[in-house]
Amino acid sequence: MTEPTRKEPRIYQADFLTELFRNPLDPAYEQSAEERAARPPLPIWSRLSRKVSAWVLLAAIGVLFAVAYQQVVRGAPEKEKVRAGLISRITQQKERTALLATQAEQLQDDVARLREQALGDPSKINQSRQIEAATGMRRVTGDGLEVRLADGPDAAVNKGHRVIDYDLQLLVNALWFLGAEAISINGHRLTALTPIRKGGEAIYVGDALVVGPYQISAIGPAKLYDDFSKSDTAKLYRVWQERPEHRFGFKITERENLVLPAAVLPDLRYAKPPAASASPTPSPSGGGK
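^ thats the sequence. predicted structure below, dont judge the formating
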């Protein structure tokens, strides 16, 4: 007969959570605390030296903070002076740019007047004026609209609240599509060669820096205001105006007798002025009579 197999005794383990609540302190920490309590107290000179070292360290940290504060306070006027100087230079450059733009517009008017004098023919002069107005090279007047687009209230800390070059491109393209004949952004006339681009955190229209709030002026047909107000682009920006991730300032206003300036003459890419001949070409004499 075979002996019946013996079963191993069952081992019951203590509940871990119950043990944790009964002895919350780790045995190693408890042993370290007991050893520290069993050690004799430190000598008086050792305790005093530790206190003195701590006070010296705190005093040194306090002196460093005081010196740093004095440096910051002392350097504040210098920083403010540098900031004021930069603001003054920026203002001067803006005034100089505005003056040069006015001079350039006056020179363009002089060139246009001389060209018309050279043409002489009224029909050719009228055709030239129409071409200049269509290409942005002539000041135009007419009825249209103004679109005001501004950054959201938290643009300084939230990039989603900032107007970027794409926003201006989207609005301008919608106006062109709906029949606008002349468009300007913050007073800068757009042509077929005028880029709207981003440079760092700034927006440029051509070579001119533009800052918000951005005012897009457009002259076009009588229904331009109604068509643009009902367009998908306008609806999109009205939605973004209410959304917390953008909260743009967006407003469309119908205007009468808008005046848009002429664009700055672009640099010629292919055409070149003819070279002046050294000697005048002789005219025909009439054939040896």
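Confidence is low (pLDDT under 50) at residues 280-289.
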